[in-house]
Design a protein that fits this description.
mainly alpha
Length: 74
């Protein structure tokens, strides 16, 4: 796969690699794709949740129980 970039974007990518953030331009592109994929999955999950019916009301006790669960698993 070949990707053409305008000079200003190529310079930006090269700078990211030179600064040690990434070992190669390919690694940088793969990371961008992974992040975009994750962002889209999160967005779809949030939209799916927003479309789903309300099954229970959430109150202070609900969030306290979630905190307790998270602390028990940590």
């Amino acid at each position: 796969m070949n990707v053409s970039l305008p000079d200003n974007l190529k310079t930006y990518v090269d700078t990211q690699v030179e600064n040690g953030s990434y070992s190669s331009t390919s690694e940088y592109v793969r990371d961008l794709i992974r992040k975009d994929h994750g962002r889209r999955e999160l967005r779809n999950s949030l939209l799916e949740g927003a479309r789903s019916p309300i099954t229970a009301r959430v109150d202070v006790n609900y969030f306290a129980s979630l905190r307790d669960q998270a602390n028990a698993e940590a």
